Amino acid sequence: LSESRGGCIIRVQSPDGMKKIPSTKRETAAAFLKKVAKEFGFNSNGFSIYLNRNKTGEILSQNKTLSLLKIKHGDMLFLFPSGSSGSSGEVMDTVQEDEIDQYLAKQDGKIYRNRDPQLCRHGALGKCVHCVPLEPFDEDYLNHLDPPVKHMSFHAYIRKLTGGADKGKFAALENISCKIKSGCEGHPPWPEGICTKCQPSAITLNRQKYRHVDNIMFENHTIADRFLDFWRKTGSQRMGYLYGRYTEHKDIPLGIRAEVAAIYEPPQNATQNSLELLEDPKAAAVEEIAAKLGLCKVGWIFTDLLSEDTRIGTVRYSRNKDSYYLSAEECITAGYFQNQQPNPCRLSREGHFGSKFVTVVATGGPDNQVHFEGYQVSNQCMALVRDECLLPCRDAPELGYAKESSPEQYVPDVFYKDKDKFGNDVTFLARPLPVEYLIIDITTTFPKDPQYTFSSTQRFPIENRDVLGETQDFHSLATYLSQCTSTVFLDIVSDFHLLLFLVTNEVMPLRDSIGLLLDAVKTSNEDLAQTWKKSEQWATIEQLCSTVGGQPSSSLEYGAMGGPSVPASSSAMWSCLHCTFMNQPGTEHCEMCSLPRS
After folding, report:
1. Strands (E), 150-221
2. Where does 41-194 have alpha helices with state H?
3. Are residues 391 and 535 in the same domain?
4. Residue 70 lies in domain
5. Residues 302-314, buried b or exposed e (16+ Cβ, 10 A)?
6. Into how many domains does the chain fold?
7. What one-character DSSP code corresponds to residue 163?
8. What tens digit of pLDDT does each residue of 171-194 get?
9. Does pTM top 0.90 for this prediction?
């Protein structure tokens, strides 16, 4: 159309490129916006158009003509999809990042070097190529560390993106999507139609150059030993959630460490070769307690152990370069957990990118002793799992399989690169897929000087271990209190599993009144703990522990802290193994759940 005949061309710039929209001066804004929606494949309210790049002068759907809005031939308008943050490198200031991310973002991060007496030819205040500070993403420096570091830290990766002359103006962290974009109105929905606007891009798997967590550290050996006790006593595998905090890992520039303070074992069915997680009615309470203690869920741990020689306590070395390190099914599970725990990130348009959630495997090492190996799966694996595109292979645990498209689901092609027998790089379709392309290994350590978030030296029974005869009830609480030798009340109650029992037991739940005690444990404040000890709730707990033995509290023996020791008595009140309800002497069935005493 020529401008002299009333026609005009309006240019519309979007994050995906520019398009020219034919129009007329007499066309209304509402009609023009419908044309734009059809051309870009949006629904009517899926975008906004502005006269200026800085999102001023929005063009609304109205009956005013383009000429009245002073839009003329050749003008450039700017389209932003709904929820878009504008330019690709714009920072999402509303995203609340984790404390460790906020701290590392303020650090210099550069690697400072001393003056080299042999190579440097300048004065004490000068700098040259041999002593100038290095960037935290310097690959040569990372490769020469002992041991070499294969993956730079996530914050070093961000510095690499946001460095240079443009200061990251065009840097953006985009989450991969394997789904068809919604709102495309130019054709029928899948499987009847698809176009390049809504079709997800093919994925070529690459080994991720960075990792969100650089080190996993258990505060002390007791945490891991208590977890392994289940396998030692039953021969069945075990799974648990790791609770702790994220701190700075100073061995790697701008690194992050996941410190593990406790392991929570959810309900599960386990055998020597399998694990099945069950629904957990206490999940919300555990998260609430952990948050009030200043902890969060940082990962999960599971065992894969098989005894080699029971006389000397060796285990089989089964996970190695000749078999696999993580199976495809375990990678999918790790991806599922990582998608549940996304990493808040201001450089991502969605407000999150990747995950700090880690995976730890307790398995046999080369010396036939128990080793703890840490992993994460890549962001590409997270996307494949989130969009249900990845399956395990039944007969080959080291192989995954990218699903094929079906009438119910479109799956983009997934490729990976490997070398053929002549040493040439060849692209293969990921059917099947070696899961080594999806795995990032993380060093797992124990400190030389043990740390204790929970300082109790006694062991309160761990939850969901009824199969071992280890139950959490008031009888076990009374026994625990009577065995405590410490006179410091804070040390006695500073046990994650004990605090969880106090909050979740059905007889005397303290969910609404335990806040002060949790603050005392979090801050290691004995005065706060003593204040809570004087509360009516603790007095009731002590009374319940006393009545477990079937005698008044005045006739019981007490441990160092004043907790009752429990005498054996056939005429005593008894606690139900199933619901922990305290039943009267002589009854054979629980008065609460009606199940038999044994």
Report:
1. 152-153, 203-205, 210-211, 215-218
2. 99-105, 139-143, 154-162
3. no
4. 7-81
5. bbbbbeeeeeeee
6. 3
7. -
8. 678 899 999 887 777 788 888 888
9. no
